[in-house]
């Protein structure tokens, strides 16, 4: 496990973007696994800028998002599909058919679980997974208590996760109760993981991941056993280490 601590949020964003850009240069047909959220937003924006400025080629790359909210459309500004398109995919030369985000409106939604698994398999598995964490240590929509061998499934969002997302969604009741997500077992199958966390509200989870035991009540703690893990933090997220 390698830990990188950056002085401020800007340096953190640049480091994350360089990490992704190096991967695209090293392996032009990389399959990226992508978390959406505030933590990764500027990493993706800068990755897209580097693509433009340095001509980094994504024409053979693939992307697969980790999760999506159930019940909202990919055209909704709050969906993971909309956000990943806006920050990254619409700004790089990736082929739309080489990108996948689960369809939160699929009816019945269970059908999308098979599509999710098949798309990742057809992309050849994930080379680099950019993984965010929730304040409670969740990864994707795998909330505390989720078994480490869990796989693609529908998951209920914890109350504190919905509270964290309330402002973004325009109120607690607006936050969907269900997500479609990769399981922790699927996340661990990625060839490399970049775990990213910034801000004081992530500091406690980061301290428990790095100094504590591996525990199902802290889903992100399992990444410690991944053979190819980098943890990227800003000073605030690292403040309790
Ligand atoms: C959501 C997503 C996760 C994401 C996490 C952190 O719950 N399902 O994939 O990593 O939020 O989001 P943020 O970066 O906005 O704190």
Would you give an account of this structure?
This protein has one domain (2-234): Rossmann fold, CATH 3.40.50.1360. It is 33% helix and 17% strand. The protein is built from 8 helices and 10 strands. The chain has helices at 9-26, 38-54, 80-87, 110-122, 159-164, 166-169, 184-188, 203-211, and strands at 2-6, 31-34, 62-65, 67-69, 99-100, 128-131, 153-156, 178-181, 192-197, 229-234. Helix 2 (38-54) links the parallel strand 2 (31-34) and strand 3 (62-65). Residues 35, 37-39, 66-67, 132-134, 140-141, 161 line the site of 2-amino-2-deoxy-6-O-phosphono-alpha-D-glucopyranose. The site of 2-amino-2-deoxy-6-O-phosphono-alpha-D-glucopyranose has 12 residues, from helix 2.
Brief overview, please?
This protein has 241 residues and is of the alpha/beta class.
């Amino acid at each position: 496990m390698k830990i990188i601590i950056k002085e401020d949020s800007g340096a953190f964003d640049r480091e994350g973007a360089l990490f992704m850009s190096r991967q695209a240069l090293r392996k032009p047909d990389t399959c990226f696994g992508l978390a959406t959220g505030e933590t990764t937003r500027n990493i993706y924006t800068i990755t897209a800028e580097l693509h433009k400025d340095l001509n980094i080629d994504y024409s053979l790359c693939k992307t697969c998002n980790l999760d999506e909210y159930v019940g909202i459309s990919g055209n909704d500004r709050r969906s993971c599909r909309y956000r990943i398109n806006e920050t990254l995919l619409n700004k790089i030369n990736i082929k739309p058919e080489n990108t996948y985000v689960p369809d939160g409106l699929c009816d019945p939604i269970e059908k999308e679980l098979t599509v999710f698994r098949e798309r990742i398999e057809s992309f050849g598995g994930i080379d680099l997974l950019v993984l965010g964490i929730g304040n409670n240590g969740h990864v994707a929509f795998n909330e505390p208590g989720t078994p480490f061998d869990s796989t693609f499934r529908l998951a209920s969002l914890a109350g504190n996760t919905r509270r964290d997302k309330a402002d973004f969604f325009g109120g607690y009741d607006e936050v969907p109760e269900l997500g479609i997500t990769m399981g922790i077992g699927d996340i661990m199958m990625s060839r490399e993981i970049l775990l990213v966390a910034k801000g004081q509200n992530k500091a406690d989870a980061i301290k428990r991941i790095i100094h504590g035991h591996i525990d199902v009540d802290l889903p992100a703690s399992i990444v410690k056993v991944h053979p190819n893990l980098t943890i990227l933090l800003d000073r605030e997220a690292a403040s309790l280490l």
